[in-house]
Specification:
about 400 residues, Rossmann fold, 2 domains, 7-stranded mixed sheet, 6-stranded parallel sheet, globular, disordered N terminus
Length: about 400
Amino acid sequence: MKMIRTAAAALLCAAMLLTAACTAGKQTNPGEAGTTAVTEATTEDLSQYEKYRALSAVILYADDTAAVRAQTDAARASLTGAGYDLIRYAERLSPLAADFGALRVAADEAAKSGANIIIGTDSGYDALFSELAAEYPDILFLCNGGYRARGGNFFEYAVKLYEGFYLAGIAAAAHTSANMLGFVTESGTPQPIQCAIASGFALGARTVNAQTNVLLMPATDTKDAAACIRELAAVGCACVAGNFADHTAYEAAEAENLEIISFGKKGKPAAGNTVIANIYTDISDYLRKIFDAAADGNAQTMDHAFIGIQEHAVGIELYDAKAADLGKLTEEAVSLLTGGRFEIFSGKRLVFDRNALSFHTENAPLTDNNGAEIIPAGGYALEETVLNGYINFYAEGVLLR
C-alpha cells in the first residue's frame, strides 16, 4: 500500500504542476481550495465568476481508452472555455481493474486537500464513489455511466452514445451502396454499452438501406484493431466504425481503401485520411449545470442525468465531399430525435425516402438479431432500460464474427 500511495502521490504532483502550467498564464495553487484562475483572454465582467471561487474540483480517470480521455478533455475544456478554471488536477489511473487501491488513495488525497467536487469519468468507479460519498458527506461525487442508487451527495450521468452511432449509421449507409458495414469492439463479451452503440449503428444504417448488416469484430490481445480492419475489408465491409486509439488502425484502413467512422474527442484524427465521420462526446453543458448548481448550493437536489444529442453531449462531425449532403440527413434525424417524434429503441422507426431525400416515421417492431420481437410495432420506448445498463441484446442487422 505504501508503494501505491507513493506512486499515486507522484502522479498527483505531476498532474497538479501540469494543470498550473497550462492555465492560460495564471497559476492555480493546487493546495488551496476555492482558487479560481481566469484566462487572460477573458474581457467580460469577471464578477460573474465570483460564486465559483468556493469550488474546487478533481477529475479521476483511467487512461485506458480514448473515449475516457475524450470525456476528461471535455470536462477540462468546459471550464476553461467558460472563463474560469475549477479543475485542480486530473489523476490518471491505469489500468482501472488493478488500481482501485490507487483510486482510493487519490480520492482520499483530493478530499483531504480541499476538493469539494470529485468527478470520475468511468462507470467502474461507482461502487467506490458510493462508499466515499458516505464517508465525505460535504463533497459532491459525480460518476459517469454508473447504475447504482443515487441521491444526497452522490449522483451519476449517462451519455447516450448510441445516438451518435445511430447518426453514424445513417451517414455510413448513405455514403456507400454496399450492404455490409463493420464495427470493431473493445470486448468479445457483450456489455450493455456495446449492445446499445452497435445496435444504434445498425438501426441507423437500416433507415437508409434496410438490407444493411453490421459485422462486429472484437479487438483482442492477439488481434488488434488494424488486423480487424483488414479482416473486415476482406469480407466486403465498405465502412468500419470503432474507437481507434492507435494510428496503425487508420493506416490499415487507408491501405485497404476502407472508410472509417471514428469515435472520441472532437476533431478529425490526424492519421485518419479515410475518416468520413467522427462521433464525439462533449459534456461541457452538463458540467456547467453541475458547477452552477454547486455554486448556488443546489447540487444535492440533482438526480441521475441522461445526456445526449439534445443536451449537446454527443455529436457527429462529417468530412469529405459528401459532408454537406450527409449533414442534411443527420440534421433531419437529429430534429426528429430531439423533437420527441421518435426514439431509437422503440416500436417506431425512421425510413429514408430517396425520392424526397427526407425521412418519415412508421410503426414497426424492434427485433433482435435472432428475429425475436423486443417491442411490438408502435410500442413503448426502451430508453430507460438501455441507459440503466439492462440492454442485453443486439438489434436486427448486427452480425457476430
